[in-house]
Write a structure and sequence with these properties.
Layout: E1 5-9, E2 26-27, E3 30-31, H1 32-39, E4 46-49, E5 61-63, H2 72-80, E6 87-91, H3 100-112, E7 119-123, E8 129-137, H4 138-148, H5 156-160, E9 165-169, H6 181-192
Parallel strand pairs: 1-4, 1-6, 4-5, 7-9
Antiparallel strand pairs: 2-3, 6-8, 7-8
């Protein structure tokens, strides 16, 4: 497998959850962040962008976006400063069902794609691209970032929307995220089976 790095933006305000530390919430006995980090165990370097938190995973690099809470593009900018692989995968910190198979699937799809392909993005059951469940050519992200100027406050689609993208269907609903208390409760129910 071609080496890849991972960036996990984890500095959001979780407004729909009343400002709680969303990556620290649990599904089963495991925090959302630890679930994502476990799925990314095959990465050469894993960078979490946000305040440092307790985790069961070792070897994680921590950094902060500028300004703290500056949004997903600022988080990607901070994470890109820490990675060196030709491929970087981006994963939200609130994906309780992300698994290592999906991480490897994304990395392999990018490695096997023609050189014109700059991104491989999971597509959820509703047909929406999930840019925080995706693999990118690091150079393409850096080029797109440089073209934007100041990254703080920009939506992620401004960074990733113009990239030449291959889409993969999320047939296992691994891109399910926890944005609300109802989402979290459904994830807990799904985990209980």
């Amino acid at each position: 497998m071609t080496p890849f790095d991972v960036i996990v933006p984890a500095g959001g305000a979780a407004r729909r959850l009343g400002g709680v530390d969303k990556p620290g919430l649990t599904v089963g006995e495991t925090t959302l962040l630890d679930r994502v980090l476990t799925a990314c165990a095959g990465a050469r370097t894993t960078v979490v962008v946000g305040p440092a938190r307790p985790t069961t995973r070792t070897g994680v690099r921590w950094t902060r976006e500028r300004p703290p809470g500056g949004g997903p593009v600022a988080a990607v900018a901070a994470g890109l400063a820490e990675v060196t692989a030709d491929a970087v995968l981006l994963f939200a910190a609130d994906l309780p069902f992300l698994d290592e198979r999906t991480v490897r699937r994304l990395a392999a799809a990018l490695a096997g794609a023609d050189r014109e392909t700059e991104a491989v993005v999971m597509v959820d059951a509703a047909g929406r691209d999930q840019p925080l469940a995706a693999a990118y050519r690091t150079a393409a992200l850096r080029t797109a970032l440089a073209a934007l100027g100041e990254p703080a406050g920009l939506p992620l689609r401004r960074l990733t929307g113009g990239l030449r993208t291959l889409r993969l269907a999320d047939t296992d609903d691994v891109t399910y995220d926890c944005d609300t208390w109802e989402d979290l409760e459904r994830a807990r129910e799904r985990e209980r089976g």
